[in-house]
Design goal:
The protein is α/β, with parallel strands linked by helices. The chain is about 20% helix and about 25% strand. It contains six helices and eleven strands. A six-stranded mixed sheet has the order 4-3-2-1-10-11, covered by helices on one side. The protein has a five-stranded mixed sheet with strand order 5-6-7-9-8, covered by helices on one side. Strand 1, helix 1 and strand 2 form a beta-alpha-beta unit. Helix 1 runs parallel beside helix 2. The longest helix has 18 residues. The two termini are about 35 Å apart.
Length: about 260
Amino acid sequence: MKTHKTAKIACISCTHAPFTPAETEEWILSTLSNIDGITHFGHLGDIFESTVASVHPSDDTDTHTLEDEYEHAHNLLSAIRGTLSPEVELWINKGNHDANIEARDPRRVPSRLRSLVHWNMHPTFREEFKKWEWLPYEKSQRSIKSIGQCCFYHGFDAGLASDELEGLQMLNSMPEAQQQTFRLMVRGHTHRPIAPTQMLRTKKIPLPFWYANVGTCGPLKPDYMLRKDSSLWGSALLVVECRLDRPSRLVGKCWDAELIRMPK
């Protein structure tokens, strides 16, 4: 990798503004400031909680406004960007919570208001949001940020085996399927951090693909999980160094990755 141009990528997921814990924000910024040479930074979705666009009635609906969510997310993104070099490429994969704000569903946001409530329309906060590339929330190649052999997306399913199964599904959505060996599929969504793990055809036959999950940077025991098991949840940041080239030109595994967990 020393003789080729490389990318150094850091990514997080699921901050769920305005519920991102202050200590988690401090940990994110401190961790990023101690990593040299970052070229790309990604937020893998659910940046907003989007309470007001939920179809599920909740006692929390009056605790904050959508504008509070935008302000919180704006401040976090701005602080992250300020920690990084100005040349760093920035992107966000929209998550299901973010997509709820845009959804063509009158139960969430009335159609006549949709153009007004979008985060990129807010006069105070839109300039920060527009500094980031936003990828759509859909189960297709359009939602994937590809850098070398590494693919980043939010995630859709939440079962215990879904990181691996969904990684294979997303691989199959990409047209260059015959050139996808040694890919690393990275997502969030489940709130369960998982270090890079090789996929298996059977328990004894490995596949030339890996998956990873960056967990959540939101609350680890929200009210809706008080009667459910969140023991596998955790906050983490993934750092990936990979060779920059078309996957068809890359021979073997051309990336290394480390999952950095926030101490509980």
